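ok trying again, last paste got cut off:
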Amino acid sequence: MACAKQSAKDYITNARVHLVGELRSLSVILENLYQQGVLTDEEVRQIKAEKDDYDRTRAILDSVSRKGEAACYKLLRTIYLTRTLERPAPLFKNIHEASTEAKRFDLHHWISCFPFKEDTEMGPNYIQEPRSCH
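nice, full thing came through this time. structure:
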């Protein structure tokens, strides 16, 4: 899957199927991306008009990916700071299979290892707790 040496855009592309299933609190993500100037009013309206959270998540990922590396970085940083990524329950028959799959697709671990720079654009409305990479 992903490694911390990938660009933010490559990570979003490679982890797309997992992000679609694991992103939560899409309104928080949308508001943060709008405040940072990543998404416009019209894009936010179009995303909110999607029929369900899966389609809204896909629309967010598509819009951000089209805007390039800086926008993708801001999305990953927003996910990291707002903790809007949910770890789904494993659907495996045995513990060994589940642990192998979890290691391969652990989005929490990868995002926590992403080399986020200090960013003065992040305002006081963002959750900014330091987290170590386990």
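cool. Residues 98-103, 122-134 have pLDDT under 50 and may be disordered. The two ends are 17 Å apart (CA to CA).
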